[in-house]
Amino acid sequence: MTPKQILVPCGPRGRDLNGVHHALGLAERLQAHVVILQWMDLTDVGEAHADWLGDALTDVIANARMAGLNLSHMIVTGSPQDEIVNVVEEEGIDLLVLSADQWHLESTLLRSHPRLLGSIIRVKEKKPMDVSVEEGGRRWPS
């Protein structure tokens, strides 16, 4: 049986690495290979946020490899949509994992490549727990 291939794209405007963490968790359970596709906006080189993403990914990748996970990291500068489609086709990607803030990327991909519909998981942001307490029909914050 061929191992599953999971693609998780990251861009310079992403707010978190929830998609990467979710993809790595899936890979561990499914014994899959993860491809992290990081696209760079060359106009943002040297920006604090772009540096944060690179540093954070370096740490996550190192920890995942130490844990025995199988992964690749690709850095590209082209259009995210084109790069994703190229990697999906070239690497035989089975599953695409997107972060909650990548909804615009998901809609663009589905318009131009509807065959990806069953292959996308969007990781939603966790909402804070409601810690209010109901007492006598009234809600009180705890």
Structure report:
By secondary structure, the chain is an alpha/beta fold. It has a single domain (5-125), classed as Rossmann fold (3-Layer(aba) Sandwich), CATH 3.40.50. It has four helices and seven strands, in the order βαβαβαβαβββ. The chain has a five-stranded parallel sheet, sandwiched between helices. A two-stranded antiparallel sheet has the order 6-7. The longest helix has 19 residues, at 48-66. Mean pLDDT is 81; it is low at 131-140.
Beta strands, count: 7
Q: Helicity range of the residues?
A: 25-40%
If helices are DSSP runs of H or I spanning 4 or more residues, what is the number of helices?
4
In total, how many domains does the architecture comprise?
Answer: 1
Please give the CATH architecture.
Answer: 3-Layer(aba) Sandwich
Indicate the overall shape. Answer: globular
Give the N-terminus to C-terminus distance in angstroms.
52 Å
Per CATH, what is the topology?
Rossmann fold
List keywords for this structure.
142 residues; alpha/beta; two-stranded antiparallel sheet
Topology:
Elements: E1 5-10, H1 18-30, E2 33-39, H2 48-66, E3 70-76, H3 80-91, E4 95-99, H4 103-112, E5 120-123, E6 133-135, E7 138-140
Parallel strand pairs: 1-2, 1-4, 2-3, 4-5
Antiparallel strand pairs: 6-7
